[in-house]
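Example 3.
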Amino acid sequence: MTATVYDLHCHSTASDGTLTPSALVARAIQRGVDYLAITDHDDTSGLAEAHQASAGTSLSIIDGVELSTVWERRTVHVVGLFLDAASPVLQEALTAVRTARRQRGEAIAEALARAGIGGALEGARRFVTNEALISRSHFARFLVEQKHVSGKQKAFDRYLGQGKPAHVPSHWPAFSESVALLHAAGGVAVLAHPGRYPLTDTAMRRLLDDFRDCGGNAIEVFSPSHTPQQSERFIEYARFYGFKASLGSDFHDPEESHIDLGALPPLPPGLTPVWSLQEHAGIMRGAWT
Ligand code: AMP
Ligand code: MN
Ligand code: MN
Ligand code: MN
């Protein structure tokens, strides 16, 4: 009997992943994943296809989303798990975020034009796989395709990242509001890849204090964004704050992503896994959808 494999963070073509939900399901099964949370950015439209594709297989889909939020004028991502994707309050909020993404996309294209790169909106749109959702990943893929940069990471380092010429402010919902929204949709709130935010220790403690105070449930300890040292640090923080622990590959694409679906270490002893919050196996298996 091998250990149950959980991967609680990945992206499909419903946001900035390049595999359809069905292809993601097939890959997860092939890689021995037992529970896969599909957590597209600000959109849940991939879930229905994932449930269809996984029906009758060894894989269970967990309904999720990755919310873009603002904390102290920075973007912080909060993953929702075990949620009711049909929640009208959730869907209304997601629609508003996607509108903000569209407006930001126009501003990014204008900024790139000022930096001498024309046609970026049309160019990025060629990589968009869900008409309702445009992401910086799509701009990055355009910049790579047009050979302005040699890879996706470089596109952020040179143009799209914080402080770079095509970085424009994002108008996302407040961090604490987003946690409340996930709870309102029956889900749990997980702080995504905390090691990725360039915060001092003091600011990180403030973020974690705020997350606890607004009812945040879990933090990701294992993520491709984390060095082994950062994973250790967030394991300690999870223990200290009493957060449940989550883990996810944040998989986007077979070529771009260096951690494949399910390729995560088991949670260390002494941490309570986030899936312990899901008491009803029926819901875990997507009985809501
Ligand atoms: P957005 O939510 O549209 O601002 O885009 C954020 C997405 O861009 C993330 O979810 C990643 O997929 C990708 N991303 C952000 N920063 C980087 C980076 N430094 N290198 C590669 N991909 C990145
Ligand atoms: Mn992404
Ligand atoms: Mn993220
Ligand atoms: Mn992600």
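The chain is about 40% helix and 15% strand. The pocket of manganese (II) ion (ligand 2) is lined by residues 11, 16, 41, 137, 252 (CB under 6 Å).
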